[in-house]
Design a protein that fits this description.
Strand content: over 45%
CATH class of the largest domain: Mainly Beta
Number of helices: 0
CATH topology of the largest domain: Neuraminidase
Radius of gyration: 17 Å
Structural class: mainly beta
Largest sheet: 4 strands, antiparallel
Number of domains: 2
């Protein structure tokens, strides 16, 4: 339920009591983050209201805008080198090694990303195919299929993966994406 008096674009907000109360960290009324990724105090956010990628080195208090070649579908940061990014656009994958200051095309598929280990970048495409790259997105190999269209994707570890489907089903893989079991269904 939306708190009364808050603008539609919430910027970055935080809760320290399990979501009972929230406070603004930054950009209240100015940003609508549809993608947020963090690594320590470094935070990346795609503001869909203004079509901009923002980067913060202080936990989201202050931000710097980064250039992007178009709207982002998803973004993942290298687990040991947070300045190395892979992003998904409508044209495919792009990569940055300088915290989003410059980008190069990787080609490849379109979908949702998870990067649980340096040698394990995962992508679930729009049809539900799971793909793995062991060289930071340069080459991909098929791994499995989630059996539906993904809405959200998370890697707990290199083998424990979770996906939410658009129909509300949540699935789990215990083998790196090769097979999936239903954890909850609507």
């Amino acid at each position: 339920m939306r708190e009364q008096g808050l603008p539609p674009n919430l910027g970055l907000i935080e809760s320290t009591d399990g979501g009972r109360t929230w406070r603004s960290v930054s950009l209240l009324g100015d940003a609508d983050f549809h993608i947020l990724r963090s690594h320590g105090r470094r935070v990346y956010g795609f503001d869909s209201a203004n079509g901009r990628l923002l980067a913060s080195d202080d936990g989201g208090t202050t931000w710097r805008q980064r250039p992007i070649p178009g709207p982002l579908i998803d973004l993942a940061a290298h687990p040991q080198r947070p300045s190395h990014l892979v992003a998904v656009t409508e044209r495919g994958l792009i990569a940055s090694t300088d915290a989003g200051r410059s980008w190069r095309a990787l080609g490849g598929g379109i979908g949702l990303l998870a990067w649980p280990a340096a040698d394990r970048l995962l992508l679930v495409d729009g049809a539900g195919g799971v793909h793995v790259s062991e060289n930071q997105g340069k080459r991909w190999r098929p791994k499995g299929d989630i059996g539906g269209q993904p809405a959200a994707f998370l890697a707990q570890t290199t083998i424990e993966l979770y996906v939410a489907l658009h129909d509300g089903t949540v699935k789990r893989s215990a083998d790196g994406g090769e097979s999936w079991e239903i954890r909850s269904a609507p």
